Amino acid sequence: MRIVDRCRVNLIHGDRISCSSPIRSSLNPIPVALTAVFPTGQCRVSCWKNSKCGAWSVSKRQNRTECRMASRSPIKSKLEEDSRSTYFFMRNSVPGRYVFGSDNLLYLQSTRLFGTFHFAVAICKKIPGHRLAIFRKVEPLENLEGILYGNAERENVNQVAYIDLRNTSRGPAFGDGTLLSDTEMGRLEIVNATTGRVFVHWNNSLVGVSTDVLRQFICQANPLGVEW
User: Is 61 in a helix, a strand, or coil?
Assistant: First the structure.
């Protein structure tokens, strides 16, 4: 298992998500806010009671626990490196909805946010433990699409979401450098291979498209520590 970006996201607890160290977890600067010395549980309760609180961090200091709260989501907060801290954020502070896939990975669909490919990469990266989704097998992707899209027909290729599959000098490759041809996904037909900058999954094919089209996108996290 790889630790992606800032941390590995832990399990969802109720309406919050946490990340364990090593992590960029202290909110700095605090967007609204407040820094206080609280017991860990009190920090959580204080955020829940504050309708403006979207995230908090708990940092172990010498002889004390420091609590920081912020009104901004992980997307809008600046996080600094601190291996002694744990960062929490409210699920409703990020745009979209979470679902578990059949591959036991956690997915965030950007239902309220559209962007270019590079915007999608940046947004997923800003959420601790998340990345723009990578699929090495066809079945988990198709199962997830069934959950996210339901029975709705996607008549236009512009209606499908970005995943992290790029056209490189070595051929189609995922965002972590793995070649498409080295995975089960490589058996799919590739359309517009010479003109597309990235690929999306549509009509049981991988279609090359521009990075500039505004689309939904899918972020991915690994709360259970499975192979990904």
Answer: strand
List the CATH code of the domain at 97-221.
3.10.100.10
pLDDT, one tens digit per residue, over 71-99 is 877 888 776 667 777 788 888 788 888 89
- Residue 16 has which token pair? 């919050």
* Each residue's pLDDT tens digit, 147-164: 887 766 677 888 899 999
Contacts of 202 (CB under 8 A, 6+ apart): 154, 157, 160
Residue corresponding to tokens 């996290």 = 221
Residue 219 parent element (H or E): strand 218-221
CATH of domain 8-93: 3.50.4.10
Maximum distance among all alpha carbons in the chain? 60
Q: Where in the chain is the domain with CATH 3.50.4.10?
A: 8-93
What's the predicted TM-score (pTM) here? 0.79
**What's the rounded Cα separation, in Å, for the pair 19 and 22?**
9
